[in-house]
Specification:
The protein is of the alpha/beta class. It contains 7 helices and 34 strands. Strand 33, helix 7 and strand 34 form a beta-alpha-beta unit. Helix 4 runs parallel beside helix 6.
């Protein structure tokens, strides 16, 4: 669950800060006097008046000018009073309209939730679309978030597994209810892809899919994540794709912690990660699953796979550019899967396999470039034979640390480092560089 979420401000909150009439009038008059005084003295300065010609005689013209000035002051004061009163009336009308819109929204919300709890899958499907429409038309962000929370909560509800065709009626019911869940997943993706601030956009809202089974594709392609939290913690991604291809992450959080990938795929290809974080901590990868950051640009955000178990499938950073922050596999166990940084450019970021256990298949940096302030850490990692490869890797100024690493030297590493070993490279004491 998403905890400690702060409610977004609404128009009702602003109404509570509306000044009383007396205070508003005093401040308005004071502001008018200050502005008028500033204009007067500004004109005096610009016109270069030296002094005021004084006279002790009050003629009819001067008296008439004073009368006109008095009426002008009274008229101006009246206009200010009318302005303040009109402003307050407008605010009260807006607040009343908001309360009426909220009341209608609440009525529609109750009807939609009732539909979502129906025994009929068709009625539930209507409730899903009704809630999505309510989120689009919500008077404020908090009400929109409430609608999204209910849709996510429906996905988190336990559901009966497929009984198979032996029980044909229950099998058809399972397929119908699965269609309801798939519709929610599709609608979420559709709304998150719309630019923030436009009608029907849910960007910036929180999305809580904790523990959900995702067996249908979710499309976040080209979406922009500027705030909010999207969590897939403890979720199961089974033979489905969660597509972030081309998405932009400048803030916020996407969390796959403790998720299980069983033939599923998460694609961050060509994504731009300039802020926020991607969390895959303690995630389990099995049965040919894949997480792809191929061609992604990671310049300000981070991707954490700390404690992950990769027993099959692939985590790919092929052709990625890591120019800031961290890609971390600390304490990860890679037993039969593959983690690849082939042709990646690591120029000002960190790739860490500290305390990782690497056996079975391969962690590869083949044809990668580690330059400038790029950092690759394998401290205290346990490497089995032929499981890590630096073949054809270009190392030009980056930092590599293999201190206390156990196992054989990675393929191609000593050749890539060269001799003498640069001061920015720390090798395990059991390894000897090529003479």
């Amino acid at each position: 669950m998403i905890a400690n979420r702060r409610p977004r401000p609404t128009s009702d909150d602003r109404e509570l800060r509306l000044w009383k009439v007396g205070r508003a009038l005093i401040i308005t008059f004071a502001a008018a006097v200050l502005v008028a005084s500033g204009v007067f003295y500004g004109l005096v300065y610009l016109l270069d008046f030296q002094e005021i010609d004084t006279t002790t005689k009050l003629d009819a013209k001067t008296l008439f000018d004073l009368v006109k000035l008095s009426f002008g002051v009274v008229a101006g004061a009246g206009a200010l009073v009318a302005l303040v009163v009109a402003y307050r009336r407008q605010r009260v009308d807006e607040a009343g309209a908001h309360r009426e819109a909220t009341r209608l929204h609440t009525e529609r919300f109750s009807q939609a939730v009732d539909k979502l709890g129906s025994d009929s899958p068709a009625v539930r499907l209507g409730g899903v679309h009704a809630l999505a429409g309510l989120a689009d038309d919500a008077p404020d962000a908090n009400l929109r978030q409430t609608c999204i929370d209910v849709l996510c909560a429906y996905l988190r509800l336990p559901h009966t597994p497929d009984p198979g065709t032996a029980e044909l009626e229950n099998h058809h019911l399972y397929l119908a209810l699965r269609e309801v869940r798939h519709t929610i997943l599709r609608l979420i993706g559709d709304h998150y892809r719309r630019p923030e601030g436009t009608h029907h956009s849910w960007q910036g809202c929180d999305l809580d899919l904790t523990g959900v089974t995702i067996d249908s594709d979710m499309n976040f392609r080209d979406a922009r994540f500027t705030r909010g939290t999207v969590t897939f913690k403890d979720a199961t991604i089974s033979n489905a794709t969660v597509d972030f291809n081309g998405a932009t992450f400048s803030s916020g959080l996407v969390d796959f912690g403790f998720a299980t990938f069983s033939g599923g795929r998460v694609d961050f290809g060509f994504a731009t990660i300039s802020g926020g974080a991607m969390l895959f901590a303690d995630t389990t990868f099995s049965e040919g699953c894949a997480v792809s950051f191929a061609n992604a640009e990671i310049s300000g955000g981070s991707a954490y796979f700390d404690g992950a178990t990769i027993s099959d499938g692939t985590v790919s950073f092929e052709d990625a550019t890591i120019s800031g922050r961290t890609v971390s596999f600390v304490h990860a166990t890679i037993s039969a899967g593959m983690v690849t940084f082939e042709r990646a450019m690591i120029s000002d970021g960190t790739v860490s396999f500290e305390d990782a256990t690497i056996s079975g298949r391969t962690v590869t940096f083949e044809d990668a470039t580690i330059s400038s302030n790029g950092r690759v850490y394998f401290m205290r990692a346990a490497i089995s034979s032929d499981t890590v490869s630096f073949n054809r890797t270009t190392i030009s100024g980056g930092t590599l640390d293999f201190s206390d690493t156990t196992g054989p030297a990675p393929a191609g590493l000593l050749a890539a480092v060269g001799s003498p070993v640069p001061t920015t490279v720390t090798l395990s004491q059991a390894w000897a560089p090529i003479p």
